[in-house]
Design goal:
single chain; 199 residues; alpha+beta; Alpha-Beta Plaits; 34% helix
């Protein structure tokens, strides 16, 4: 995340700031210029300009630097396209390496979760509600966590099971829960979603 001696080598090879239309190069130039006082302490080993980049790319900057003094090289005003291409290639190569490193360090994406309150209705007042709840809680899935529950009177002595769960949206859906819960046909008449909230 800090400039290196490679940046300093390229910076010193440029006689003037890049033109405004090369805004990425100009941004880089101004950034490196801000390290004027610390340039000797930056990491890396300073090499000749053409020695940076992939190992299998031929150094074409030597011919350009032989004909001029290093201090007089103006990569953006020069007619020597090879020097300019080498510089732009270096910028692209170094920026892509930094981007790849930054991307690998990014925090993982936030997992979307929901809190669901389910109403599970039994067949009648003789249904064993403890067994019904045991059956519901026996449903296990990646991204599903069961929470608190209570029995709520419906009428005529019948109570329904109201149970809370937290699900990861990408892994568990209400359709899957309904299918698995209503599969306990001896105990469950139906299942409804009483409340659904994103967390």
């Amino acid at each position: 995340y800090v400039p290196s001696q490679a940046d300093i080598a390229v910076f010193e090879a440029i006689a003037a700031p890049p033109p405004a239309e090369l805004f990425h190069a100009l941004r880089w130039y101004n950034h490196i210029k801000s390290y004027e006082k610390e340039k000797a302490s930056l990491p890396g080993v300073k090499k000749a300009l053409g020695k940076y980049g992939p190992a299998d790319v031929e150094d074409t900057t030597g011919a350009a630097t032989d004909s001029k003094d290093d201090d007089d090289i103006d990569l953006f005003g020069s007619d020597d396209e090879e020097v300019l291409v080498t510089f732009l290639f270096f910028l692209e190569f170094s920026n892509s390496a930094v981007f790849a490193e930054q991307k690998s360090l990014e925090e993982p994406a936030v997992v979307a979760k929901s809190s669901i309150l389910l109403d599970v209705k039994p067949w009648d007042d003789e249904t064993d509600m403890a067994k019904l709840e045991e059956c519901v809680r026996s449903i296990q899935a990646d991204g599903l966590v069961w929470g608190s529950s209570k029995l709520v009177p419906v009428g005529y002595g019948i109570k329904k099971l109201q149970i809370q769960c937290v699900v990861e949206d990408d892994k568990v859906g209400t359709d899957m829960l309904e299918e698995r819960i209503t599969a306990f046909e001896d105990y469950v008449q139906s299942m409804d979603v009483a409340a659904f909230n994103k967390i």
